[in-house]
Design goal:
The structure holds two protein chains of two kinds.
Chain A (H helix, E strand, L loop, with lengths): L17 H11 L16 H19 L3 H6 L3 E2 L4 E2 L2 H13 L17 H35 L2 H12 L3 E6 L15 E4 L5 E6 L3 E2 L8 E8 L12 E6 L1 E3 L5 E4 L2 E7 L9 E6 L12 E6 L5 H7 L1 H29 L21 H33 L3 H37 L10 H8 L9 H12 L6 H18 L4 H27 L2 H6 L1 H24 L5 H17 L3 H10 L13
Parallel strand pairs in A: 3-7
Antiparallel strand pairs in A: 1-2, 4-5, 5-12, 5-13, 6-12, 7-8, 8-13, 9-10, 11-12
Chain B lengths: L1 E6 L1 E3 L20 E3 L1 H17 L7 E7 L5 H10 L3 E5 L9 H13 L5 E5 L10 H9 L3 E5 L1 E5 L2 E7 L4 E7 L2 E5 L11 H7 L4 E4 L1 H4 L7 H4 L26 H11 L4
Parallel strand pairs in B: 1-4, 1-6, 4-5, 5-12, 6-11, 7-11
Antiparallel strand pairs in B: 2-3, 8-9, 9-10
Helix pairs in contact in B: 2-5, 3-4
Classes of the chains: A alpha+beta, B alpha/beta.
Chain lengths: 608, 264
């Protein structure tokens, strides 16, 4: 075996693994290739390393220290103001002063055009250190990202630039008290005014970061209906509604008619305040009358389309958050298992000293399972972020389109798979710590509670399943799925070509699962009854997700091939684990789908 | 105003440090970084430059380090924080130099640079001797204001506060001078994206001993007055001692244990 990586010491952080991020970015994804493309020409490996170091440093010193405190002292609402821990603002100021909010955006709007894959690696540090505080930054980034593409030049100057400077914060206000997953039933109304603005009236629900005093202003992106708009999602428009109106010179003007009805008290993710905002209730009277002043973004009745252009990246961001929480839970339970002395191997008497937890095979099973979930999910998220980069920077238009199509089909998986399996990792982290893991003396229980949100927001697990099977897989005659399976087969071919028996066995198992997925997808398409097809869409999402992560484990195996040392041995062990114990779960799920089982479809609610 | 800030590239304290057969640190096998205590020196240098503003004319902060090839990382970090240019003294003959030899090389490098103020950290995080600033002031023939926890500059007068165990003293020096600052002088700033991008274009010169006119025989392990005689790895973590309380004697046993370890 040849060794390509120097035998440097391993970073000891329990937040994230810089070693793994370096492996994924530079030994697997070939990030250096990006620097040869015009969009990323200002960057090189040394700047990327400095940026990763900066993320680690700020995450470690400003975000991690108040993670538990922000969980214990959840945001308070006194009827007019939301109160947060001061450390939240300090951390976000450091984040903004370093330049993170603008990093991935175009230079034209003040961004630095950092590759999305590198930005994702940075954000993993912040999510893992303190996802509650990071939530404010993530929402603001998504908001600024959308407005930088769809906003007018004036909207970019007045709202995007201050968000990139960390002076303004952003929200995404979609759900309403009666309409969560179903945006077709939104009722918030927007009345056009003579001056080209709109006045909004209505109530929203589950709006994260909906009010606080972190900055000078809050920019809400609000879905609403104009008078006479068509029913359903085709009649939804998108509006920019600031908490405070902004004067043409950029100064803060009148208070807009946006207030809170209250805040929600959550199981986890408590650092990010979750609110129920009210628009146009007359609490404030901008221009002397009630109604929240709003500005149209894009065209009327195209709001959902505008909102969803940024949804791929937002959903990958949620998946990355789930991954980071799973990852840090793994590192913390691993550190505990290495230190905590408990029990002896079978057949060893009590006169012998106790051994660390990690010496027990069952504990190692739980650690290796976590490793396979967390590192597999990180590979999935960074692969998708790389597709974002490819779609924005490849020379060839066809290749850019191909990256976008593949990204489309992978996005529901990149959001849902980590939300499900990195939560399972957090569950195992608690189990490794035993009774201690169930106490608030250790972080792992908080990670579990925080992570539980990720299968719910930004489109639930069920919504992602419907998106994958009902839309993405069927789009363009199955082009996205075809592209995905082409790449899966190419990886299997490279693995077979290594002449390594283990890799060949993995490749064969992967190909068999891929063929079965194609077969079952065809059978589902032939069923003709969309209700039956979608009844078990979650089984399809989960089967496809396991297949994709198995593929990415084989990719990691190949990137580690021929390299020596514990780090690479760990990659091979996790690949072996995933192929032996996780990939086989795909078969029964696909069998269920192929059977056309009608149990849930035909179930009368009265029988429950 | 020309400020020269001396920084050291040290092994990352979170990594496992190893030593060569001659008891010098194995720098290749471990990640290195800008000594955290020197970040305070960079910060104070930048603050002085910022306070001088346009009144300071063409104020410039030059980062100076001695070390192997990787030491340029320490310079780069300081440039990302906002320093203007770097000088890297790199020469195989320097390896193993003690504080005395190091201060010689630093002094000769400083002499080649325009300098009104030479700023150092209070000590390195690896060697931890804390004597280089005083040696440097002696070699340069400049007043040395060391261990400053707060720093003021009024025209050509440098004033620092030095906090001791029993008293706080104020020390004044007239420029040009050598200054060392403590970890109480003010939190060091993070680099920024803009700083990271800007640092790529900032000049870094590499000088050899010959460039400084220093004879190789004056530096290195052989020429050093001090050398590490022996190193020992930290003992592995033990299981600890469990005091059992089966007959009511537990409290006494616990107190006896604490007394035996001189905790009470």
């Amino acid at each position: 075996m040849s060794t390509t990586a120097p035998a440097r010491t391993v970073n000891q952080s329990q937040i994230m693994s810089r070693r793994d991020l370096d492996f994924l970015l530079f030994e697997w994804l070939g990030t250096e290739e990006l620097f040869g493309r015009p969009r990323f020409a200002d960057h090189d490996r040394s700047t990327v390393e400095s940026v990763l170091e900066l993320a680690e440093s700020i995450a470690t010193t400003r975000f991690a220290p108040h993670n538990r405190a922000a969980d214990l002292a959840e945001p308070r609402f006194d009827g007019t103001r939301v109160e947060l821990l001061p450390e939240v603002g300090d951390a976000l100021r450091a984040f903004a002063e370093a330049g993170f909010p603008a990093a991935p955006l175009d230079q034209g709007v003040g961004g630095l055009q950092l590759p999305s894959s590198v930005f994702g690696a940075c954000m993993a540090w912040f999510h893992a250190a303190n996802t509650g505080t990071t939530g404010y930054a993530l929402l603001t980034a998504a908001n600024a990202n959308l407005l930088s593409v769809h906003g007018t030049p004036d909207q970019v100057d007045r709202y995007v630039r201050p968000m990139l400077e960390g002076r303004f914060f952003g929200t995404m206000a979609l759900s309403e008290p009666h309409a969560g997953s179903n945006l077709a039933d939104l009722t918030t109304r927007a009345e056009p005014q003579d001056d080209g603005t709109y006045r909004l009236f209505g109530r929203k629900m589950w709006i994260s970061a909906g009010d606080h005093e972190l900055g000078e202003n809050i920019v809400h992106l609000v879905l609403a209906r104009t008078p006479g708009a068509p029913a359903g999602t085709r009649g939804v428009s998108l509006f920019l509604v600031p908490k405070h109106l902004v004067e043409p010179d950029g100064s803060i003007g009148e208070r807009n008619d946006v207030v809170l009805a209250g805040i929600n008290h959550k199981m986890g993710f408590r650092g990010t305040v979750n609110t129920a905002p009210v628009f146009g209730d007359g609490a404030f009277t901008p221009g002397g009358r009630p109604g929240a002043v709003g500005y149209l973004v894009g065209e009327e009745n195209r709001g959902l389309r505008v909102m969803f252009t940024m949804m791929n990246e937002a959903r990958i961001g949620v998946g990355l958050c789930a991954t980071a929480l799973g990852y840090t839970g793994y590192l913390k339970s691993l550190a505990y298992a290495r230190e905590r002395l408990q029990g002896r191997p079978a057949g060893v008497g009590p006169e012998e000293p106790q051994v660390p937890l990690v010496e027990h095979a069952d504990v190692r099973r739980m650690l290796l399972a976590q490793k396979s979930y967390a590192e597999g999910a990180l590979a999935l998220n960074l692969y998708c972020s790389r597709l974002v980069d490819d779609a924005a920077s490849l020379d060839d238009e066809g290749a850019r389109r191909e990256a976008g199509t593949l990204l489309g089909v992978l996005t529901p998986i990149a959001k849902s798979w980590p939300s499900q399996w990195c939560l399972a990792a957090n569950d195992l982290a608690i189990q490794v710590l035993g009774g201690a893991g169930y106490t608030r003396d250790f972080d792992v229980e908080q990670h579990y509670r925080d992570n539980r949100l990720n299968a719910i927001h930004e489109g639930t697990h069920g919504i992602q399943a419907q998106d994958l099977l009902g839309r993405k897989v069927m789009l363009d005659g199955g082009a996205g799925l075809g592209l995905l399976l082409d790449r899966v087969r190419a990886t299997a071919q490279r693995a077979s070509a290594t002449q390594d028996d283990e890799a060949a066995a993995h490749a064969a198992a992967l190909l068999a699962a891929a063929d079965r997925l194609v077969e079952v997808t065809g059978a589902l398409g032939a069923l003709g009854d969309p209700r039956l097809v979608l009844a078990d869409a979650t089984a399809y999402l989960e089967a496809a997700g396991h297949l994709v992560v198995a593929w990415l484990w084989l990719e990691q195996w190949l990137a580690a091939h021929g390299k020596e040392g514990a780090f690479y041995d760990g990659k091979r062990a996790a690949t072996r684990y995933f192929f032996a114990r996780e990939l086989p779960k795909v078969g029964p799920m696909l069998d269920l789908l192929a059977s056309g089982d009608r149990t849930t479809l035909d179930l009368d609610p009265a029988w429950l | 105003m020309n400020i020269v800030v001396c920084v050291k590239y040290v092994p990352d304290a979170t990594g496992d440090r190893k030593f060569e057969s001659d008891n010098t640190v194995d720098r290749e096998g471990v990640d290195g970084l800008l000594s955290e205590l020197d970040e305070y020196a960079v910060e104070q240098s930048l603050q002085l430059k910022e306070k001088l503003g346009s009144d300071g004319g063409d104020s410039e902060v030059t980062v100076l380090t001695i070390g192997p090839a990787g030491a340029v990382d320490a310079i780069r970090k300081a440039l990302q924080m906002g320093a203007d240019k770097g000088v890297h003294v790199q020469d195989d003959a320097i390896a193993g130099s003690d504080a005395f030899a190091t201060s010689l090389v630093l002094a000769e490098a400083v002499k080649k640079l325009p300098h009104d103020l030479v700023v150092c950290g209070m000590a390195s995080t690896d060697g931890g001797m804390g004597v280089v600033p005083a040696m440097l002031s002696e070699r340069l023939g400049l007043p040395g204001a060391t261990l400053g926890s707060s720093i003021e500059l009024d025209g050509q007068t440098l004033k620092i506060r030095r906090d001791g165990d029993t008293a706080t003293v104020t020390v004044e020096a007239t420029l040009p001078a050598v200054l060392s600052v403590t970890d109480q002088s003010g939190e060091a700033r993070y680099p920024s994206f803009k700083g990271i991008m800007a640092a790529k274009k900032k000049p870094v010169e590499t000088w050899s001993l010959a460039d400084l006119g220093v004879d190789a025989g004056q530096v290195g392990l052989e020429a050093s007055y001090t050398a590490v005689e022996e190193t020992q790895a930290r003992p592995p973590r033990t299981a600890g001692e469990i005091v059992k309380d089966e007959d009511g004697s537990g409290a006494k046993a616990l107190v006896d244990f604490l007394v035996s370890k001189k905790f009470v």
